[in-house]
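Possible race condition, two jobs.
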Amino acid sequence: MASNTKNLVVDPFCFRQFKEHDSSEGYQGTVFNISIEKFEQIVNDRYDANALKDGYAPFCKHIFIENDFTDARLCVLPITKENEHCLRTRYEARNDKELPVLSRYFDKELLLQGKDESEVFPIAKYLDLILYSREQIQKENESMGKEPSGETAPWGIVSIKAQDINAELPMTPITAMRNALGKEHGGSGIDIDREKYMEAFNYWKNHANVV
């Protein structure tokens, strides 16, 4: 259904981050217990166009929301001698249209051995809502053969990151590489910016996502 009064809607690509959807089963990132309807209501109430921050391309924006309404915990940790044995790698694709790429991550079960979740993963102070313009979403859906949704909200929430700062964490280098692929492979067709790529490398060589 089209949203005529909302500025932000959760894009179907992001449904996997909400427990009410079957696609959340097996998803290793942050999954919210709150309903999509309630989530959209809260973030639209707090929406301020002046608070939009530029993303990696003109069609991508970020908006940072104080996390005082979910129990989402941090899912990025620094790599230390004490936890490096919990690192794992695997090939993965976020949907059946994308090419699988190699990713590195912390195994959550290994990190939690003998520990309570609250000892390892504090509740995040902020949520980074990653937004794509309606035009870009339509272009990517068309290139992957998806039917038009009829949605009209100007911004689609394509990912939500739980974090401790109200600023963008660098995109993982492998995500930048994937985005540089054509839309038919699940990318956005945006060339790699070498300076930003090296910033991402310098951050992610010492950090990893928890899944």
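Job #2 (started ~2 s after job #1):
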Amino acid sequence: MPRSWVGWCLTVFSLIAVLEASEGDADPVYRNCAQLCEKTGCVKDNCFQQCNFTSSGDRLDGGQYLQEPLYLQWKQWDCHSDCRCHCMLSREEERQWLGHKPAKYHGKWPFLRIYGIQKPVSVAFSALNLAMHFHGWISFFILIYYKLALEDNRKAFYEFTGFWHIYGMLAMNSWFWSAVFHSRDVDPTEKLDYSSAVALLGYSLILAILRVFNVKIEAARIMISAPLIAFTTTHILYLNFYTFDYGKHLV
């Protein structure tokens, strides 16, 4: 009886793993390619130096591992990730030749990386958004403090100045981490990107309510902001320390 329960549990867990896997990484051809690559260090004619070293940094032939310069180590392209990337691209070429549609791998669509950047177009648009928000924040600063009249203590007459400064900082922070995440998609950059985006969205909702209803009383501002800040903070903690659902945050 215990053996049958063990077999049943293993079957259920195997089915759960298959259901959670994307179409691409569940493909046996892709899986075999990745496993073979990590053993041989090559995908077809492409071979990777990272696969010739052990996890301790020693060469498989007994030599010593030469560390990459610090400015290159941020990429974190190790044997495992290089094999996944090139096997994915190789398999997608085969699927395209067979007339199949692109498939997701590990929950994400395949992209061709350029100079170590995984999604060059996304990086370019994120950087452009960052530049536009920086330009907008500088323009707002100049308008408030150099073109409009100020109070005697050099304080701006516009009562929402501080709120817009915070919004500008959060927006620039969000687009900065978006560019970093699309450059190299690893767990820390993904969490920083989505956490920054959630913080920006939560604060945007607070600012929209305060501005639309022209809330000027400090106590009322706190009463509106406090629960929304608590909800946003809780959601960020949930994403970072409980579970991160990539699909639910694509919109």
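The first strand starts at residue 42 and ends at 43.
Logs attached separately.
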